[in-house]
């Protein structure tokens, strides 16, 4: 249910980057920017969407122009917007025996995957259980991705408009509550003033004149 523009490039190759020794590890800072724009059309409201998957392959190139596969990996694009830093471990297929490792070291080349979707679930797989019994691999390293995710939807606009509408209603209610509180204070003052006048009128006149002269 995901689609993209026909002019959208969905695959690419980074530049060659020299590694640097950081502690006990050899680190390559690719700093390779890429942009992917995809569209999701929901037909069934009950089903949950499956987010797109990014597959990657790491290759090495030595002084003698010999290529080697250093690792495969995949990551599911984050479902929430914002900045995400993900570190994905990699692995590569291996052959048994020292001859294969010596061939890899001196000649170059190594076992490779014909279909990159085999990193997760092969595109040709139709069964219920996927068995990788007998497929030998070894861990090799990790790749760090810094992703900046943006999401746009009409539902977001509707919800923001609803929030603005609710905010305006709350503002009005707040104004009404302030006005009502002022009115309540004025009414209480008027009631107290009337009670004072009634009490003054009920007192004897000689008591009122005596208190006035004493003051």
Structural notes for this entry:
32% of the residues lie in helices and 26% in strands. It has 215 residues and is an alpha+beta fold. It has two domains: 2-149, no CATH class; 154-202. It has helices spanning 98-106, 154-202, 205-214, and strands at residues 2-4, 20-22, 25-27, 38-40, 53-61, 67-76, 82-93, 137-149. The strands form four sheets. Strands 1-4 form a two-stranded antiparallel ribbon. It is built from three helices and eight strands; from the N terminus they run βββββββαβαα.
Supply database-style keywords:
single chain, 215 residues, alpha+beta, 2 domains, two-stranded antiparallel ribbon, 32% helix, 26% strand, elongated, disordered C terminus, cytoplasm
Helices and strands in order, then pairings?
Elements: E1 2-4, E2 20-22, E3 25-27, E4 38-40, E5 53-61, E6 67-76, E7 82-93, H1 98-106, E8 137-149, H2 154-202, H3 205-214
Antiparallel strand pairs: 1-4, 2-3, 5-6, 7-8
Poorly predicted sequence stretches spanning 5 or more consecutive residues: 210-215
Give helix and strand order, one letter per element, not per position: EEEEEEEHEHH
Number of helices: 3
Please tell me the total number of domains.
2
Task: State the share of residues found in helices, binned by percent.
Answer: 25-40%
Shape: elongated
N-to-C terminal Cα separation, in Å?
Answer: 91 Å
Keywords: Cell projection, Cilium biogenesis/degradation, Cytoplasm, Cytoskeleton
Pfam families: B9-C2 (PF07162)
GO biological process, one term: cilium assembly
Main location: cytoplasm
């Amino acid at each position: 249910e995901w689609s993209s523009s026909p002019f959208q490039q969905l695959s690419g190759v980074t530049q060659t980057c020299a590694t640097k020794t950081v502690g006990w590890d050899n680190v390559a800072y690719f700093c390779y920017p890429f942009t992917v724009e995809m569209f999701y059309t929901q037909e069934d409201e009950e089903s949950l969407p499956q987010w797109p998957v990014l597959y990657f392959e790491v290759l090495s190139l030595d002084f003698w122009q010999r290529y080697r596969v250093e690792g495969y990996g995949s990551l599911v694009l984050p479902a929430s917007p914002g900045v995400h830093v993900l570190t994905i471990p990699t692995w590569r297929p291996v052959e048994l025996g020292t001859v294969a490792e010596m061939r890899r070291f001196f000649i170059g080349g190594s076992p490779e995957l014909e279909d990159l979707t085999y990193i997760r679930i092969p595109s040709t797989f139709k069964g219920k259980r996927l068995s990788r019994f007998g497929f030998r691999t070894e861990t090799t390293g990790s790749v760090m991705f810094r992703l900046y995710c943006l999401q746009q939807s009409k539902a977001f606009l509707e919800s923001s408009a609803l929030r603005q509408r609710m905010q305006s209603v709350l503002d009005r209610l707040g104004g009404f509550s302030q006005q009502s509180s002022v009115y309540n204070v004025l009414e209480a003052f008027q009631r107290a003033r009337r009670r004072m006048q009634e009490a003054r009128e009920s007192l004897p006149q000689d008591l009122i004149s005596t208190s006035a002269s004493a003051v």
